Amino acid sequence: DTAVSQTPKYLVTQMGNDKSIKCEQNLGHDTMYWYKQDSKKFLKIMFSYNNKELIINETVPNRFSPKSPDKAHLNLHINSLELGDSAVYFCASNPSLGTGELFFGEGSRLTVL
Amino acid sequence: DQQVKQNSPSLSVQEGRISILNCDYTNSMFDYFLWYKKYPAEGPTFLISISSIKDKNEDGRFTVFLNKSAKHLSLHIVPSQPGDSAVYFCAASGSNDYKLSFGAGTTVTVRA
């Protein structure tokens, strides 16, 4: 039973489209994150939610909109996709804010053509 | 501006020998450091951590060393096994910081 699951795992789409990536965790954690791994392989934080409340919003274009309907889910919606959005997006969770160890999903590889 | 740097993108080591992975950081407010391991097409998984009050933490074959004055940490894997072949990420955070900053990773290949 996967602890942090993301869908879809692969996504290929055209520039200008809108797409969503979904994330669910069954660990009972309070905090969830979205990280982006770009072509240089760095993992960079995008957003963090704690108990459905937005805590971290790193200078991410407002085309990216996270939504947390409950503390077990954190979805990422991206409007007007651009070539530079191509990356692997990882969802993660940890028990509470400030607890260092993150549990990651398998990643969602987004390719924008 | 990358605050966590792993300057060796890859490392090849013979099975049974020691693997040493290095990580440097620039932010003096970092006080908690972690190593993650990642296999292809999977998410990173937590391996070992160390807080700034320690200079060494050991878990089985894995040992992390922290040199705060040099802002440097290293991960030792002894002995290296083929299943250790993966990408290893160094990460760090500060007490008042709710996010982890990651390095770019080091790809370890253990040769049989």
Walkthrough of the structure:
The complex is a heterodimer of chains A (113) and B (112). Chain A is built from no helices and eleven strands. The mean pLDDT of chain A is 92. The radius of gyration of chain A is 13 Å and the shape is globular. Chain A starts with a strand and ends with a strand. The relative contact order of chain B is 0.34. In chain B, strand 4 and strand 5 form a beta hairpin. Chain B starts with a strand and ends with a strand. In chain B, 0% of the residues lie in helices and 56% in strands. The mean pLDDT of chain B is 94. Chain B has 112 residues and is mainly β. At the A-B interface, strand 4, strand 5 and strand 10 of A face strand 4, strand 5, strand 9 and strand 10 of B.
Secondary-structure blueprint:
The complex is a heterodimer of chains A (113) and B (112).
Chain A: E1 4-7, E2 10-13, E3 19-25, E4 31-37, E5 43-50, E6 53-57, E7 64-70, E8 73-78, E9 87-94, E10 103-104, E11 108-112
Parallel strand pairs in A: 2-11
Antiparallel strand pairs in A: 1-3, 3-8, 4-5, 4-9, 5-6, 7-8, 9-10, 9-11
Chain B: E1 4-5, E2 10-14, E3 19-25, E4 30-38, E5 45-51, E6 56-59, E7 62-67, E8 72-77, E9 86-94, E10 101-102, E11 106-111
Parallel strand pairs in B: 2-11
Antiparallel strand pairs in B: 1-3, 3-8, 4-5, 4-9, 6-7, 7-8, 9-10, 9-11
